[in-house]
Amino acid sequence: MMRRRSLLATLGVGLAAPALGQEAWPSRPVRIVVPFPPGGTVDFLGRLTAAWLQEATGQSFIVENRSGAGGNIGATAAARAQPDGYVLLMGSPGTQAINAHLYPNPGYDGIADFAPISLVAELPNLLAAHPSLGVHDVAGLVALSKQRRLAYGETSIGGSTHLTAELFRLQAGIEGEHVTYRGSAPMLGDLLPGRVAWGVDNLPSILPHIRSGALIAIGVSSRTRWSGAPEIAAIAETLPGYEVTAWFGLLAPKATPEPVIAACNAALVRMLATPAAARRLAELGATPIPGTPEAYRAHILAEHAKWGGVIRQAGIRLE
After folding, report:
1. Per UniProt, which keywords does this protein have (predicted)?
2. Cis omega before residue 26 (within 30°)?
3. Distance CA 241, CA 226 (A)
4. Torsion-angle region of residue 239: left (phi > 0), alpha (psi -120 to 50) or beta?
């Protein structure tokens, strides 16, 4: 144990200083709750974060998928966990900033019930269509959607993919048959065989199907094109002002001791600054955005206000 602590101190990754009678954190395995099913972007990033923290601290970090209700089930479980640093949450726009505006009672407060640790990464969403439609860009999809009512899907009701799809529909002035799914795998299970005409997912989950030719990329949701695939247009090139960006970060239950938050932040920020982490995230279409707990809290507050206004203005309601 002393040898491991000395090594971590040399690397600049501090463990939480123990209070009298307490062990240093982490002294046993840590669970990271991912409030969505396996196979999606939150799951990918949750598992990467777990691996990085395990490498940094020498302790086991285990991902626990607890999906349902747009992330509310897993987020509620994490919020109610013992605030000792051994249960953490992989948060997203839906769980921390959007669900409060859509659900009468999500079961938790995305701001008040959590202590932010650090943002991890951000990435655009990608709108893709089935090849049978014969469309290859935003203009083509909009024109076809005005001729007939198309079924479209997204991966998380109330999440960034939901807002990406609904804002696209509203700004384009089109209607459609909205189908929501509990994650990437079930949505792609209908989009790939053409049971829905078009769909939205986080870029890492859907990009392999674009590259294989199974789906057609219509546009990314970021303000400009993504550097990893500059051939894919931004939706904003056709619909000016359009922008939705997905972000993901690690949080702990409120009242988690500050030394634990600081130690976890230091370990995660250090790992995210490595070239290996940057390369791995780039492969997924993501950009690392580590920072302080205070910066993460400010980001959540800003997103909460932004999406609350958009949801009210667009009249988005849960079905």
Report:
1. Signal
2. yes
3. 16
4. beta
pTM of this structure: 0.79
Q: Is 261 a residue whose pLDDT tops 60?
A: yes
Task: Identify residue 54 by its one-letter amino acid code.
Answer: Q
Mean pLDDT value across residues 75-102? 96
The structure tokens 């007939």 sit at: 148
d(CA 178, CA 167): 13
Q: How many CB atoms within 10 Å of residue 18?
A: 13
Averaged pLDDT, 210-235: 93
Q: Look up tokens 């439609």; give the residue.
A: 133
Q: What CA–CA distance (Å, rounded) separates 206 from 201?
A: 6
Element (H, E) at 178: strand 176-180
Tokens 């199907």 sit on residue: 209
Burial letters 59-92, b for 16+ CB under 10 A, else e: bebebebbbebbbbbbbbbbbebebbbbbbbbbb
Query: Which amino acid belongs to residue 133?
Result: L
Q: Which residue bears the tokens 């707990």? A: 293
- pLDDT at residue 319, rounded to an integer: 54
What type of residue sits at position 261?
Answer: I
**CA-closest candidate to residue 13, choices 53, 48, 61:** 53
Beta bridge partners of 144: none
Q: Which residues of 219-247 are buried (b: 16+ CB within 10 A; e: fewer)?
A: bbbbeebbebbeebbbbbbbbeebbbbbb
What's the rounded Cα separation, in Å, for the pair 13 and 268? Answer: 9
Surface-to-core class of residue 213, CB atoms within 10 Å of its CB (0-12 exposed, 13-18 middle, 19+ buried): exposed
* pLDDT given at position 15: 55
Long-range CB contacts (within 8 A, 24+) of 220-227: 220/124, 220/125, 220/126, 220/127, 221/124, 221/125, 221/126, 221/127, 221/160, 221/164, 221/245, 222/124, 226/124, 226/285
Per-residue pLDDT averaged across 5-10, rounded?
41
Full set of structural domains in the chain with CATH: 2-123+246-314 (3.40.190.150), 124-237 (3.40.190.10)
